[in-house]
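Weekly puzzle thread! Below is a chain. First person to post its structure in token form gets bragging rights.
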Amino acid sequence: MKLTSYWKSFAACVLPHLLLLWLINTSIPEVFTMWYANLKKPLFAISTDYISGLTFVVYLLLGISYFFQWTSKVPYNLVIHKRYSLILHYILVIFISSWFYIFFVFKLLDLAIIISLLAWVLVLFLYFFMKKISHKAGYMLIPISVWLTYNFVLSWAFWQLNH
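Winning reply:
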């Protein structure tokens, strides 16, 4: 692959993920983050400034993972696996993105726990599914699974403290 087409492909994979994050951040009004500030927080809760930085890293890694999946050369017998992994990737992005609205806008802490758990299971399934396609893409999912684990535990703790 030529260097210019490499960077165009990389930008085409990463930029939509970062654009989605920007849309999420700009569409959640300040009122809802003030609601978050008034919640009883567990000891391991981090501030919203760090959450913004970490979610940027998560969406960046999602974009890079997608790039490695999309550009991977696979034998004919794995083409269907590649298609399914790309579809599962977007389902994962939908789950991760919907968590923000469920938690901050709709304030459904119990549903946020379920969404976090489903996203964690999906990223685990996608990791093992994707290893056949691209090891690099699978490795990008490891920090995302750590984030989703923390997100699940944090959602559970918020629900316990504020229920």
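Puzzle host: Confirmed. Bonus trivia for everyone else. The mean pLDDT is 89.
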